[in-house]
Specification:
The protein has helices at residues 2-54, 265-269, 272-284, 290-310; strands at 56-61, 68-69, 74-84, 91-98, 108-112, 115-116, 120-127, 136-144, 149-151, 155-159, 165-175, 178-180, 184-194, 201-204, 207-210, 213-220, 228-232, 243-250, 255-262, 316-322, 331-340, 359-365. By secondary structure, it is an alpha+beta fold. The N and C termini lie far apart (168 Å).
Amino acid sequence: MLKSKSSQTKASKSQASRSRASKAKLNIRAAQAAISVLWTMTAFLTLLSSASAQADFTLQAAPFSPDAVAPGGTSSSNITIGTINGFSGTVALTCQVSSTQTTTSTPACAVSPTTVTPPAGATATVTTTGQTTTVGYTITITGTGPSTTHTTTPLSLTVLAVTPQFTITVQSPVVPNSVPAGSGAQGTIIINPINGYSSPTRQVGGKPISGITLSCGSITPLVTLPPICSFNPPSPSVNGTATTSTLTVNTFGPIITGAVVHPRHFYALWMPFPMLALLCLGAVAGGKRSTKAKAWGLLALFVMGGALLLMPGCGNTAVSTTTPNGVTPNNTYTLTVVGVDLDGVVSSNVTSTNSANPTVTLTVTSPTN
């Protein structure tokens, strides 16, 4: 009996032990399953979050060119929009102009196109007016996508105070471009106002005087008698719009003074007198020898007719020329055209590609007479 009870007790304890072990295994398996599910969800969320963060676009803008303009000028910047990890949405582009100072007629900025699908490019253009305050401005460009917004680094643009001025350009070169000494050629120039230039007016002797005095500021090569310039009108007025003037280039050469005739009438007038004498002799002898008289008369008429025909040939006609100042030497001349107004403002053609006033050329050859 005792052994039987002891065996039962041992069996009961063994079963309880197995039951606890089984429950422990089940708990471990449940914990492992929960950990596995949690890890999977975490990995999924991390992957989803990572994928969402990587799908984006980039926004870059080049400096504005030019970086300084006069009132009324424009400047532009090239914009580049790129993609990151397959971004496929659209991006809306805008730009804004600001200044740390109080301004009037603030420059306007516009982007074209306003909406793009990266990768793409666009252009931002800033436009000023004649009344725009001459200070520095800051421009920012913004791109807005489906879930993100990017803004460029602030870009600078300066509006400069400028002085109205004018330039001179050659509309047509002188024609002909090669002339004999003593001849001339003509061309056309244009006076171009910049920044609203108008030629000043002064009262001289109670009359208003205005305009830009034109001249050939330099002529090369240097010679004793170079070509000379004249303009028509010589002092054109400019009032905000381009004005033209005719340029004439003259040279020194022989001057025709006229045809000089040296008469020889006295040398030919003696010829009729002997013939008249022959006629008289023929008349005296006519009564006796009428046949001879007739012969003498015919001979006299013949000689007189010949004399009359020869008299024009006895004169001497010649063309007279003179060179009171000399002759412009043979060469190819370069003439620089300049202008100056009543305030002393001189024409200025200084640009990024040109640093001198306009020129015309003329080739001078030997005189024809």
